[in-house]
């Protein structure tokens, strides 16, 4: 028999998808093995040891205490320490300019850092350039080797001209092998194109893959791909690469040797304008309150959306039953959303619905059924009646706003 290892992509997909009916059959019973990079990999689903949590759900003990002979659970503060990847003298630099929406790395930014590491290999370092203040505490596990934070009023708000000046200073100091920016509407798309024109580079846009020195990007209204030799400047789409997950990086702070000149802006930022969340297209909304068959009081649901300042979404059943317009349907046959927070009320989590929320950062579920697939998918869950929880949410938000008004007065 030949030694060639044959892969079965379908079986691999099923093995990764814990909602697939054949998932269990394709799980290896091995609980621990050495991965190709020398890292120990664990399969938490094959671990028999676990305990029943306060909500009656089975919890897996990832601390390893239950598999090591001792039946005592270790404290939840025991954190897995990933191996530290240090690049003392980088041969070259890959520069990434994350969007940092809300001061944190978005999932799009993390995908980009994953791509940057593919391009950096062992000898290169990933340099993240961040404007203004941030709230991010996980640059190290996201894959940042060097962190350049550019602070100052001149970078606050919408300031693309000043930012391009700063990036030109980075170009002069580090001469990055590649520049990577998210091809997003929230910043990177425009900043990247401005930087390209300033550097005289022809960027690759909406890039979803970089392999063997070639970049492939979407074109023709999403119906065509353009493949070309990977240029220096890559404006990448979400999911262009797997985010870094197996290593920790230094995130060593660096500075520009020369101060960045201040330009006389031709654009004046007049500040943010309040918008009606109901008017925001769902695909662009950052915060979605989505209702399903478990919502019985739709007037309350609409009041909750207004109180929370959320854009409304719905499951197909809610739309079919006439509670919400067709344009609000989330899922495989509706809109694929990319919200930072997706709050699912009374939605069971059918696969067609979950497909539509795959790119959401945080999913919060409100449901009566603790075993439903939406609860399994959620980062946070509240088990209870939708109406009671929405009512309590509205009261909390209103009390919070009243308190803020009183403090301001
Ligand atoms: C080809 C095809 C395409 C599809 N495309 C889509 C799509 O794009 N989007 C989509 O959403 N669906 C789609 N569907 C339908 C999908 O399979 C599910 O039927 C649908 O998503 C279920 O909607 P639901 O979760 O709102 O309802 P249900 O499955 O009925 O779930 C209701 C949930 O509410 C909970 N609940 C009940 N009462 C309460 C209460 N008082 N408080 C809190 N929770 C409560 C229940 O526990 C349950 O989990 C598609 C189906 C097909 C066949």
What does this structure look like?
Pfam families: ETF (PF01012), ETF_alpha (PF00766). The structure is a single chain. The chain has 409 residues and is α/β, with parallel strands linked by helices. The chain folds into two domains: 84-254, 3-Layer(aba) Sandwich (Rossmann fold); 277-404, Rossmann fold (3-Layer(aba) Sandwich), CATH 3.40.50.1220. 25% of the residues lie in helices and 22% in strands. It has ten helices and 20 strands. Helix 4 packs across helix 5. The termini are far apart. Residues 64-78 have low confidence and may be disordered. Flavin-adenine dinucleotide binds at residues 292-294, 315-318, 329-334, 346-348, 350, 352-353, 356, 366-369, 372, 385-386.
Topology:
Layout: H1 9-16, E1 32-34, E2 40-42, E3 50-52, E4 58-60, E5 84-85, E6 92-96, H2 107-120, E7 124-131, H3 139-142, E8 146-150, H4 160-174, E9 178-182, H5 188-199, E10 204-211, E11 214-219, E12 224-229, E13 233-236, E14 248-249, E15 252-254, E16 287-291, H6 298-308, E17 311-314, H7 316-320, E18 341-345, H8 351-356, E19 362-367, H9 373-377, E20 380-383, H10 386-408
Parallel strand pairs: 5-14, 6-7, 6-9, 7-8, 8-15, 9-13, 10-13, 16-17, 16-18, 18-19, 19-20
Antiparallel strand pairs: 1-2, 3-4, 10-11, 11-12
Helix pairs in contact: 4-5, 6-10
The structure holds flavin-adenine dinucleotide (FAD).
